[in-house]
Design a protein that fits this description.
4-stranded antiparallel beta sheet; single chain; Replication initiation protein; RepSA; alpha+beta; 5-stranded antiparallel beta sheet
């Protein structure tokens, strides 16, 4: 008969590890740690300690050591915003983004409720054309009509967004536009204020004294591999969301200023290899008013569709996406041992060819990536441009898998609404309150609300991911969460 510790007969590594975890001194704590991660796919493993002390009495109120865990480490969520990497954490990020955007439209989260009466616009700015691509044009009635190639493409046709003539498509211009899109947005916000002052016939100083322009924006990839921006732009009074804007600060003035700023905002990029390029917005743009939540008096169905909740949900949705929608990969292509250089320094300090990438600097050969030819050429172009001296500061080889885009997917002006950090602080305070309530129920001493606490801690990163047995437990947690959500959607359990 085999001893209990001999698990060599168990073929599955996951099951073998799960049995080992079940035989630890506190398997309930193992399952609690995994359950508290709420389905995170790639948790961070930490080693360290934290101690909370009453500043007056020097008494230790709470203490924790990862060594006391059954596995000897603490698991915490990865916090990745990308749905392709961690669906669980991206849902939390999307929810936070939704509340951040909606607070700037409807109030709440320390934002005045009167903000919904301020002029607001939902603005879409697109990239210019770098060559004709396969698309799905429609008539005024919304019916699809043939593409320039002569075919009427289906909505999920793989050729959508790819060039009609790849040999003449401006791939260098497309990659450089993505690389400078964030800077172009920053310049647009500057020109927006200037254009507004010009339209209203006043100096910019007078405008800044009477009006504040607040915004929140998100980047979205089009099928052709270029980003465009969706933004909420709002007029406030000089004190921000707590003060009403002047009567002359109307939606029509905002719409006119957006049109002028879109034309004037541009960057010039010079290169000996590819010549001079002008980075500017495309001709297509939209500026739509956002109706107040619950406003049922609008008669235009197209305008009425842009409500506070729908705009917030739309922006939150794209805040968790990446470039994968264009068919690219969701991971960097640089070889980590050589940091993309293709060489490492040997003991003699000379450059030696990196054996991991065979001198290419690529963790995966671009020619072997499971992507369409259009995407592959975008990646190859970004990699090549990144190694030109004039574009060295852009580090395009680092962002080749993003097709050159290296900006923030979502950002906001300082006074738009609350912050993601403030929302996380509220969640942390709620968890501490729950812990205090649990201590009270267990008859343990609780902390007086007037007590000043001092926390000291020291943490070291160990690794990322689960043990094989923990992965089985996490899979069960994900199944339970998905099952509960499905029942909720079907109305089989109360909301």
């Amino acid at each position: 008969m085999r001893p209990q510790s001999d698990l060599r007969h168990v073929i599955s590594p996951g099951l073998r590890d799960l049995i080992e975890l079940a035989n630890t001194h506190d398997f309930d704590r193992v399952t609690d740690q995994v359950r508290n991660l709420r389905g995170c796919t790639h948790p961070v493993n930490l080693h360290g300690w934290t101690t909370t002390t009453d500043q007056a009495t020097k008494e230790v109120v709470r203490s924790y050591r990862s060594e006391d865990e059954p596995s000897g480490r603490l698991l915490t969520v990865c916090g990745n915003r990308r749905a392709s990497r961690c669906p669980a954490c991206s849902r939390v990020y999307a929810a936070d983004t939704y509340h951040l955007i909606k607070a700037g439209l409807s109030g709440g989260k320390n934002v005045a409720a009167t903000v919904r009466d301020h002029p607001r616009a939902f603005v879409t700015l697109t990239a210019p054309s770098f060559g004709p691509v396969h698309n799905r044009p429609t008539t005024d009635a919304g019916k699809p009509r043939p593409c320039a190639c002569g075919d009427t493409h289906a909505e999920d046709a793989p050729e959508l967004g790819t060039p009609l003539n790849p040999s003449t498509y401006d791939y260098a211009g497309a990659v450089l536009w993505n690389a400078h899109a964030g800077q172009l947005w920053a310049r647009f916000t500057t020109y927006l204020r200037r254009a507004l002052a010009e339209h209203l016939g006043m100096t910019q100083k007078a405008l800044n004294t009477a009006l504040r322009v607040s915004f929140a924006k998100v980047a979205e990839y089009q099928k052709r591999g270029l980003v465009h921006f969706h933004a909420v732009i709002r007029f406030d009074g000089p004190d921000g969301h707590t003060s009403a804007p002047p009567l002359w600060a109307t939606f029509d003035a905002l719409k006119t200023a957006v049109g002028l700023a879109r034309k004037r905002a541009r960057l010039t990029v010079e290169s000996d290899a590819i010549g001079e390029r002008v980075i500017a917005w495309g001709r297509r743009f939209k500026v739509d008013p956002i109706s107040a939540l619950g406003d049922g008096e609008l008669t235009d169905a197209r305008v009425a569709e842009y409500t506070d909740a729908k705009v917030a949900g739309y922006i939150a949705k794209y805040a968790t996406k990446n470039a994968e929608g264009t068919g690219t990969v969701d991971r960097t292509l640089i070889c980590r041992p050589c940091a993309g250089r293709g060489y490492v320094r040997g003991p003699d300090r000379f450059h030696d060819r990196c054996l991991d990438c065979d001198g290419t600097g690529q963790a995966e050969p671009i020619k072997a990536l499971p992507v369409q030819q259009h995407v592959r050429q975008m990646i190859r172009t970004a990699w090549a441009l990144g190694h030109l001296p004039e574009f060295a500061e852009l580090k395009l080889w680092k962002w080749a898998h993003m097709l050159g885009f290296r900006g923030h997917f979502s950002s906001k002006s300082r006074a738009y609404s609350t912050t993601l950090g403030a929302l996380r602080d509220v969640r942390r305070a709620w968890r501490l309150a729950q812990a205090e309530a649990a201590r009270a129920r267990a008859g343990l001493p609780t902390t007086d609300e007037n007590t000043t606490l001092v926390t000291a801690s020291s943490w070291t990163y160990l690794s990322s991911g689960y043990r094989p047995g923990e992965e089985l437990l996490a899979a069960q947690v994900r199944h339970d969460i998905a099952h509960a959500q499905r029942l909720k959607q079907e109305g089989l359990v109360p909301s």
